[in-house]
Amino acid sequence: MSESKNKPFIIPVFLPNVGCPHQCAFCNQTAITGEKQKTISTEKLNLYINEFLNYKKPQRGKVQISFYGGNFLGLKKDYAGLLLHEATKFVIRGNVDSIRFSTRPDTIDKDRLDFIKDFPVSTIELGAQSMDDRVLTMAKRGHTSLDTEKAVCLLKERNYEIGIQMMVGLPGDDDTGALASGRRIAELYPDFVRIYPTLVLDKSPLANWYRKGEYTPLPLQECVTLVKRLYLLFEEKNITVIRMGLQASESLDRESTILAGPYHPAFGALVYSEIFLDKAVSILESKKDLHDMISIRVNQRNISRIRGLNNTNIKTLKQKFHIRSIEIIPDMTLAEDMLVVGHLPSVERNPQGRSRQAKRV
Length: 361
Hints:
Layout: E1 9-14, H1 29-33, H2 42-53, E2 63-68, H3 77-92, E3 98-103, H4 110-116, E4 121-129, H5 133-138, H6 145-157, E5 161-168, H7 175-187, E6 192-197, E7 200-201, H8 205-211, H9 220-236, E8 240-244, H10 250-253, E9 258-260, H11 267-286, E10 293-298, H12 303-307, H13 312-321, E11 325-330, E12 339-343, E13 347-349, E14 355-357
Parallel strand pairs: 1-2, 2-3, 3-4, 4-5, 5-6, 6-8, 10-11
Antiparallel strand pairs: 7-9, 10-12, 13-14
């Protein structure tokens, strides 16, 4: 499965709405980040970075200072330069490897890239959200799909690591449109992708449309299945999906923040669980001599994914195939995207050869 290997140690610096030319229909960055729109002083930035560096463990990978939540290249040049200058000091000292930021596709141009070329910026994320111009207009994005394509070309010319953020469930969008956007993004071959469900956040324009009955969000299960299809589309192209669903936070978990929409604090886990359920169903449907007591071997890291939240996958498999007992067996010899289904004897042997009593569910 295309999960990020050797994940960088991210020091996230949130700049909610800073540099944004207007408010998109779905946006309320204060709700997402828990912080109101504001700039950050160099003193506070330095304290914040040093505090995070204290959390870094020796075995963690490269360290990146990451400016999120706003439209970085839409900042006033003096302020953007000040932030980059302060962050660069940590790179020069050897505490940090590089800088990354997120920005709108329409802020990528030759002049702005010339401005940042002398700073140790390695990764740039583009908030594309959709590759359907009608959907972008309805979401009040203020840019087009062509802006995203041009931005990717310019960034590739300068050898930046490129991430693209997309959303599902936007006004005017549907499964067919989202998958078409996914295919167009995949054709750009970014280094990684994030997939976010559209949520109805309080004090966003979308909240007014929702209250008037002009917008209906995706149900959670439908959204999970759609994101699963997008994940598999990107995986087929060897494009890493580094996040599915918004990062859980205290502000998002407040009932007053999200009025409606497919929010779940473990949204990505739900997607992975459905992928593993599909794998198990496909294997079991192909078995002609299926017993009512089976074992499923998976890599240790995927035990929770094959089980599903609250063992929902186990319950589904038992009911669908009339299985009496299923044992999930960790097997570190298996690749992370594999599972092996077999008949369940009364005693199993683990990969090291020692016998073990089967634990059945």
